[in-house]
């Protein structure tokens, strides 16, 4: 049924290699099958101007694809002189998601930037980015707590994201590129450990879907994020 | 309960003034309470390079806020030299939504651009834009059919969008600015007449929400879009 | 003679609808026939860096055309990433004109920005912008005086602008688009109530003109501005 | 009276050194006192896309100030990544002026670009640019005629430009920087040999002026351009 | 002597992991100690406009640092909207170097882009980029030859690059970041297997150097490149 | 042998006209044959943010070609909105070279910008820029010392630059455009009076070169810079 031969509710293999680069306060290379994203967390003792003097911190995200992460080479955004709408949409989503599980007052007046750079793309790069960014953030916050810079843990829960969609009429979990480019509907869910939803985005492509379809996608996402939470747990131990 | 005194499932007054400008093939000024957006549809007998020779058309959207549409003056994107991530996200949503109800082969090798310019903002500008853009698109397509340029109607259904959210713990419909800036969750639904979903986006702000919350927001949106479909019907008659 | 059937010294109908938007400190929708411009005045309690500490204020203008204000859709300057030379020339003219009738010391250390957004264009958009911007400025200054923020009225006079040109050899007043695109000469005058000139710009297009021609255009402009001053007076009462 | 000790109708010394650079088809270094502008005319056998196939040519202008042409160093527009509104306004004026004396059909399907680069500034750089650009254009056209590329002379007349203004209540000709920065009114006239006006621009600065003032400025400009026409004549012989 | 304890002529460990990403026609992750660069070669069946119809191909390079490749986070060039002078200088060097060993006629009318993205930086990123880019290029060209698209091998030799410098008065090979930031002179050599020089760049920092110094640096580079050629040979076998 | 008929070690005529513009603290027009560059030194009593409070100054360079400095007109970087990689590479080289002979502590907390604008190009514009910039810098520093702003001379030596290359197999000095575009190797040396090297850059074009070739080029450059040092000495006396 699925090009990869996976069952509808079957995820691709997840691996999380922490400490992939040495300078960042937290880093990991996360893989969902052939999708590989390098996530780093950088702590800076400064905050955006509009937050100064409010006794709180900030968490933000940036996202990019290496030019040849994809089947055919894409042009480099730095060379074109601007980031695409898609890039901006994704990095806004990454920042918003991670802020949903971080208490800004406990973080204190500092900023953590989560850079998600896609080394290789095979569908689901934005959800892998969020899932990996949490690992990098967790590591960076641990380091701040160990050094005594932060007293109380600002991270309130794990957060993870997964794509799902309707492929040939069937709801499926964790779309790869072949499925993604032919899906009838395409959804991304960002879920918090414990059952809460941080973000739900579902888009019809070609065919549309109804309330029932939305619910079935959400339930697949809940299953998928359960597996990611376990992989995150193992990675940061 | 609500700052405006509205009931949780009560929309603001909707007005649609068609033919607001004379040059565009279709145009309307749509109001949801104090939110007012000028929507125009421009037909051009050319298509994006990547579509050439495929015998189909294209529908795209652009969005902008006038600098003083808001409480305090925002800087002009043309002067800053780039569109914000928010602007790009919204205009991608507008285009995607309208394409969901347009058969590109019946449209033929031409492009229709839907410009949504916010004259005055009081919450819900992106959903008013989509709802008004459909009216402008309908008018432009009518004109193409009357002139004989198009034979079969490419528009497959009405499409409308509405925001809803959780305000003080209660799901409410059609948020105005006061509610929007204090909501626990903020959702936008783009619905197709007949019950299908084109797009669902729900974001936790501060508090998160669960499956039950998502469903209640969707049902409010279905009620709201019902009213918008009626207003669209009246406008294009 | 004239495509519109007007007499050489006949203006189009002028209407000025004040309070067209609610957030701005002053606003109006001004129409010269089918040319319609939304003018807003925004007061900000900050001044450009080079004026700090000098005990005076600043008045500046910005100008834009909505993409489909014109016969064929123009590309959006925010999307192209820069303002055209024409746009910049016009907004410099708007700011300079309004500053000619405003005493910057009486205004105090604040800035008023006049945004002129062309909703529909049919010739004469820059002159309608200046004429409408004065109304918005007058309203904003009135509000500052009522609140006690300003003591002495900084506005020294009314200011208005009108185009005129030589069409088929005859000097004519208030060119619409059809005339403008075929005129032999094209002039814009910004006049101050009482007979003084703030700005005169006359350009030969195809045919050139001489001293006599320049004078005849100026006299037409004086007639036209007389009518605009009356419309402004009625609008701000 | 005047800071320079000149009489009100006295020009600064004009010099025109032709052939200042060797690659351009026409070039000169024009000086009005301490204002020095390098003007080059470059012929290219291609035309802008919107003119293709119409059997006519195009003349356009570009303008720039070297960073240290002025009293204090200005930042380089290439480094800032955009041309100022003032630069764009001036280069539009240069192109428009030269086109007023060039028959585009006789020019044939080619483009001549007039680059005006200000080496040293002391007031009147835009008018020196236009006056010098005509010399460079004349030389380039002569070369095209000598080579047989053009048969009939496309240049219909000489064109020259001069600034004048009201300084301490007195109309004066050819303002230098000290006068320019303190003038009550500032005007630029572009005149065609024989008495016709191509462009008149007069701006009040501080004080305003009336019809009589405008006429007196125009007459000074006519005197000044008379001298420039002689210098141009001598230069191109 | 050296912060790392290495002998003056001692290189860091070199590793080259080929096939690091799957979409590119050639790819490797090259490491010089802690400096790690992902190099990919992308083949496209199109050439720059100025080469069309000349029967030859093109090889070009692009370079970027991930934001947190360095000790402190650098801002993302795509977000700033332009590439730094340093980035442009390096990518010009990469392209020029690889073209020095590629016969453009044998390559045929196609372009190969070498993307060098620095994953982790510890000095010598540009030289690692060139050395790794050759491996990626070799793999891509092999693929083109295997498929029959190219008949004769266009690569004429191996090419490699290494940095060296004068540190505390002593010429040393393969500078890491600690040395690089304190060196008296800093040189990069691009050498061709067999003894020829493609590029020599030596810059004094603080102290200057003389002919003797330049020669000693060149000889260190020759030793270093010898080792790189062996690593390249092993990698592409 | 050489297109110009010069001997392999023969320089073109060098002229340095100091005080070419009046506003800059130091200026000269330097010519190497037909290559002419206007160099100005501008003193500003401010320093880059990252140097504040360190008790030292800064020297930086900017470089540009006038559009028609070359055989065919190049497009203006200010109009394109960005500086080319070549421009940035050259201006970084200019700044680095001049800093090599300036003691930043003796200079004090001020910045000197060296603007090098190429009026006419015939090969060797970057080396003429550096050689002329030293003259402008020397003049500006003299003025600072005469006024008492600086006590001890911050300039430690003369610095000059020259190109050389391998043309038809023979090492030649001071390449003009005809040679430059056909050279087998192309080198630029920046030398300090007394024999030290500030910068060496040698690039193979087509043919490569070896250690012996590099040395021969360096020796030619030493001869050439000897002549430039004399011309600089005469110019600043």
Automatic annotation (TrEMBL), chains A, B, C, D, E, F:
Pfam families hit by this protein: RNase_PH, RNase_PH_C
Known catalytic reactions = tRNA(n+1) + phosphate = tRNA(n) + a ribonucleoside 5'-diphosphate
Top enzyme class: transferase
Task: Please give the InterPro entries that the UniProt record associates with this protein.
Answer: ExoRNase_PH_dom1 (IPR001247), ExoRNase_PH_dom2 (IPR015847), ExoRNase_PH_dom2_sf (IPR036345), PNPase/RNase_PH_dom_sf (IPR027408), Ribosomal_Su5_D2-typ_SF (IPR020568), RNase_PH (IPR050080), RNase_PH_bac-type (IPR002381), RNase_PH_CS (IPR018336)
Q: Which SUPFAM superfamilies match?
A: Ribonuclease PH domain 2-like (SSF55666), Ribosomal protein S5 domain 2-like (SSF54211)
Keywords (A to Z) from UniProt: Nucleotidyltransferase, RNA-binding, rRNA processing, Transferase, tRNA processing, tRNA-binding
Q: What Enzyme Commission number(s) appear in the record?
A: 2.7.7.56
Q: Which GO terms describe its molecular function?
A: tRNA nucleotidyltransferase activity
Every copy of the Exoribonuclease phosphorolytic domain together lies at 10-140, 159-222
| Family assignment from sequence similarity | Belongs to the RNase PH family.
Give the function comment from the record: Phosphorolytic 3'-5' exoribonuclease that plays an important role in tRNA 3'-end maturation. Removes nucleotide residues following the 3'-CCA terminus of tRNAs; can also add nucleotides to the ends of RNA molecules by using nucleoside diphosphates as substrates, but this may not be physiologically important. Probably plays a role in initiation of 16S rRNA degradation (leading to ribosome degradation) during starvation.
Tell me the subunit arrangement.
Homohexameric ring arranged as a trimer of dimers.
This one is known as: Ribonuclease PH
Which lineage? Bacteria, Pseudomonadati, Pseudomonadota, Alphaproteobacteria, Sphingomonadales
């Amino acid at each position: 049924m699925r090009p990869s031969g996976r069952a509808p509710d079957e995820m691709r293999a997840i691996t999380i290699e922490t400490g992939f680069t040495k300078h960042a306060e937290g880093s990991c290379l996360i893989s969902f099958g052939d999708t590989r994203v390098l996530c780093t967390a950088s702590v800076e003792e400064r905050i955006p101007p509009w937050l100064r003097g409010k006794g709180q911190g900030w968490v933000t995200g940036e996202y990019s694809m290496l030019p040849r992460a994809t089947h055919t080479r894409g042009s480099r955004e730095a060379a074109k002189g601007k980031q695409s709408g898609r890039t901006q949409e994704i990095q806004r989503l990454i920042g918003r998601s991670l802020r949903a599980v971080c208490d800004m007052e406990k973080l204190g007046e500092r900023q953590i930037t989560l850079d998600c750079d896609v080394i290789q793309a095979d569908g689901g790069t934005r959800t892998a980015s969020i899932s990996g960014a949490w690992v990098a953030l967790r590591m960076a916050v641990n380091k701040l707590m160990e050094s005594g810079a932060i007293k109380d843990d600002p991270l309130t829960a794990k957060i993870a994201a997964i794509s799902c969609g309707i492929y040939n009429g069937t709801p499926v979990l964790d779309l790869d590129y072949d499925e993604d480019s032919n899906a009838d509907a395409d959804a991304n869910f960002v879920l918090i450990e414990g059952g809460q939803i941080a973000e739900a985005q579902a888009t019809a492509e070609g065919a549309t879907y109804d309330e029932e379809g939305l619910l079935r996608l959400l339930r697949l996402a809940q299953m998928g994020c359960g597996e990611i939470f376990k992989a995150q747990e193992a990675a940061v131990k």
